[in-house]
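pasting for ref. prot 1 ->
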Amino acid sequence: MYNVEADGLIKRYGANEALGGVSFRVGAGEIFGVIGPDGAGKTSMFRILTTLILPDGGSARVLGMDVVRNYRDIRTRIGYMPGRFSLYQDLSVEENIHFFATLFGTSFEENYGMVKDIYSHLEPFRKRKAGALSGGMKQKLALSCALIHKPEVLFLDEPTTGVDPVSRKEFWTMLGRLRDQGLSIIVSTPYMDEATLCDRIALIRKGRFLDTDTPSGIISKFTLPLFAVSGQHMPSLLRDIRRIPNVLSCFAFGDRHHVVLEDRGLSTEAYADALGTALYAMGHTDVVIERISPCVEDCYMYLDTLEERS
């Protein structure tokens, strides 16, 4: 049995369709990542799965229970960390944890083993009000409160947004330990680099999944020629690359542009020469062109381009 199952989930807000028929499965001891930008439908999906809103179509089950009919039972067996910090900011760290333990009919002492690795970071600040914590410490406190009743499934909606890189790394290390204890974790994030930290991922765009697979599985499906191009005039370079007929997609990636070309069975040198010649004719005489391997973000951007054109 899967711990989380969704079949054709649909959610609408007036004329806006937030979810357009999402389906997936999550097993025990698995981190399932939902990867996509703001407005893609991630939060609506999480709110349905955590029984906070009703779907307009499709069905979902958590621990074998229907999210509509069995919402009371589901709420006692899951942990949920929403995107916005939602704890009581005027209460101290330890007061928040004790309060949430009481809500679930347990105690901090009884379930300390579940949160001790996370709480060890918070203990020096246990008397500090939650509102006075740093972003990273707020996230650790929210995670502790979501775990204090020993849930079987953990839902994390963009838990590292706005958190510094060190705290993000620590947070994902903690998630890995929880996964190793058998906890099912569903996490959403707009950060493509976090996709590789998940066991499986779904790439979401405008309420629909573009692909669902392991990170390496999604990358292995990308077989088109991919190049990184840089030069002195990057904005005009981006516009001109997109005008070249055999360019399928091009987007800015840090200090370079990632360019996907039609597969014509050519060598790397031939592709680079053709691209360089086309750009030289447009007045770009200083470009650097390099063949590169794809990452999850390249896969997402290419699939997004295909979806936009369809």
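and prot 2 ->
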Amino acid sequence: MKRNPVDQFMKDPDNKARMFMWATYAMIATTFLITIGVIIFILHLVGIF
């Protein structure tokens, strides 16, 4: 039976916390990028940009 490397990585609480922080940063960055993209798209539809 093979060990799951993700389970082995998540056993350490420090690794779990680090992964949670990086996932949070990625979600925040994605939200900002989507927001900027929607604003530019709306400005393009209006004809300003």
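The CA atoms of residues 25 and 39 lie 21 Å apart.
DSSP finds two helices and no strands in the chain.
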